[in-house]
Automatic annotation (TrEMBL), chain A:
Source domain of life: Eukaryota
GO molecular function terms listed in the Swiss-Prot or TrEMBL record: RNA binding
Protein name from the UniProt record: LSM complex subunit LSm2
UniProt record similarity statement: Belongs to the snRNP Sm proteins family.
Source organism phylogeny: Eukaryota, Fungi, Fungi incertae sedis, Blastocladiomycota, Blastocladiomycetes
UniProtKB/TrEMBL annotation, chain B:
Keyword Cell wall biogenesis/degradation: no
Family per similarity comment: Belongs to the snRNP Sm proteins family.
GO molecular function, one term: chromatin binding
Gene Ontology biological process terms, A to Z: deadenylation-dependent decapping of nuclear-transcribed mRNA; mRNA splicing, via spliceosome; rRNA processing; tRNA processing
GO CC field: chromosome, telomeric repeat region; Lsm1-7-Pat1 complex; nucleolus; P-body; sno(s)RNA-containing ribonucleoprotein complex; spliceosomal complex; U4/U6 x U5 tri-snRNP complex; U5 snRNP
Organism, scientific name: Allomyces macrogynus (strain ATCC 38327) (Allomyces javanicus var. macrogynus)
A Pfam family matched in the record: LSM
Functional summary from the UniProt entry: Binds specifically to the 3'-terminal U-tract of U6 snRNA.
Designated name of the protein: LSM complex subunit LSM3
Keywords assigned by UniProt, alphabetized: mRNA processing, mRNA splicing, Nucleus, Ribonucleoprotein, RNA-binding, Spliceosome
Sm domain sequence ranges: 8-94
Keyword Oxidoreductase carried by entry: no
Residues spanning the signal sequence: none
SUPFAM superfamilies per UniProt: Sm-like ribonucleoproteins (SSF50182)
Automatic annotation (TrEMBL), chain C:
Subcellular location: Nucleus
Keywords: mRNA processing, mRNA splicing, Nucleus, Ribonucleoprotein, RNA-binding, Spliceosome
InterPro entries with a match to the protein in the record: Lsm8 (IPR034103), LSM_dom_sf (IPR010920), PTHR15588 (IPR044642), Sm (IPR047575), Sm_dom_euk/arc (IPR001163)
Family affiliation: Belongs to the snRNP Sm proteins family.
Annotated protein name in UniProt: LSM2-LSM8 complex subunit LSM8
Pfam family name, one: LSM
Function description: Plays role in pre-mRNA splicing as component of the U4/U6-U5 tri-snRNP complex that is involved in spliceosome assembly, and as component of the precatalytic spliceosome (spliceosome B complex). The heptameric LSM2-8 complex binds specifically to the 3'-terminal U-tract of U6 snRNA.
SMART domains in UniProt: Sm
Gene3D superfamilies (UniProt xref): 2.30.30.100
Ranges of residues in domain Sm: 1-77
Assembly notes: LSm subunits form a heteromer with a doughnut shape.
Gene: LSM8
GO terms under biological process: mRNA splicing, via spliceosome
């Protein structure tokens, strides 16, 4: 549940979700669940010329299993806090 | 015989928090960056990352590799999903490889 | 079902992208925890670099969750302004895990 908590602190921030099919979608993080499924509002493809397929979408639910990366806003991350939380997390062996 | 503490693989990863690591991923991808967080799935958050993607050029007629190209990009803060991770290793120097 | 993220999209007009790169549109009538979907009046959109978008009618569709990449609510106003016949694009790539 560790990264689920991390993502919950990022609700409202703009992120880019990069998928395993190379599609990259930018949007505002609206919700996340235990599977790290993600919902984004105000979505747009990072390369809209290549991906007109998603041009008419209002929002996007992205299945956690298809995510390669999520580009995070560095300003929203307290790295010291994150490291401490990682060390103290009982779920981390 | 003195009992030695068994270092589990995740204990070794824990030692690398706040250090530069090299992460090899599926799909001929490599990341070098500072390890800020991880979990038992090997999901990670890395900072100041350089991603290197190796693209193999293939001659379609001969089915032979004609060359390899490395495409790099920098990402300030990156969550990496663990199911793509092959290996994690400390870097001797920043932005190794 | 109300606690699932997808429940907000129930009964809405949605677009689904699947693992094999196919694009479907339809009304979302059913969901579950594994992202299995029921799409009513499902149409498949086939994109091409040389020709306009071709639509194939499929009817009532069940899509197995492990094949789902993305589910998005369609902005019907934007849809109406889009001339699918003039859209040129390579099909979306199949997913590589």
């Amino acid at each position: 549940m560790f990264f689920y908590s991390v993502f919950k602190t990022l609700v409202g921030k703009t992120v880019v979700v990069e998928l395993k099919n190379d599609l990259a979608i930018q949007g505002t993080l609206v919700s996340v669940d235990q599977y790290l499924n993600i919902k984004l509002d105000h979505v747009s493809a990072v390369d809209p010329a290549r991906y007109p397929h998603v041009a008419t979408l209002k929002n996007s639910f992205i299945r956690g299993s298809v995510v390669r990366y999520v580009h995070l806003p560095a300003s929203a991350i307290d790295t010291a806090l994150l490291q401490d939380a990682t060390r103290n997390e009982p779920g981390n062996r | 015989m003195a009992e030695s503490s068994v270092a589990r693989p995740f204990d070794l990863i824990k030692l690398n928090l706040d250090e530069m690591v090299q992460v090899k991923l599926r799909g001929n991808r490599e990341l070098v960056g500072k390890l800020h967080a991880y979990d038992q799935h090997m999901n990670m958050v890395l900072g100041n990352v350089t991603e290197s993607v190796t693209v193999i050029d293939v001659d379609l007629l001969n089915h032979q590799a004609t060359g390899a190209n490395v495409v790099k990009r920098n990402i300030e803060m990156l969550f990496v999903r663990g199911d793509g991770v092959i290996l994690v290793s400390p870097c001797a120097h920043p932005h190794d490889g | 079902m109300s606690s699932l993220i997808l429940s907000e999209m129930l009964n809405g007009l949605v677009q689904v992208i699947t693992n094999d790169g196919k694009v479907f549109t339809g009304r979302l009538r059913g969901i579950d925890q594994t992202t299995n979907l029921i799409l009513e009046n499902c149409h498949e959109r086939m994109f091409s670099a040389d020709e306009g978008v071709e639509e194939i009618r499929h009817g009532l569709y069940v899509i197995r969750g492990e094949n789902v990449v993305l589910v998005g609510e369609i902005d019907e106003a934007k849809e109406e302004q889009t001339d699918l016949a003039s859209v040129r694009a390579e099909p979306i790539m199949a997913l590589v895990h």
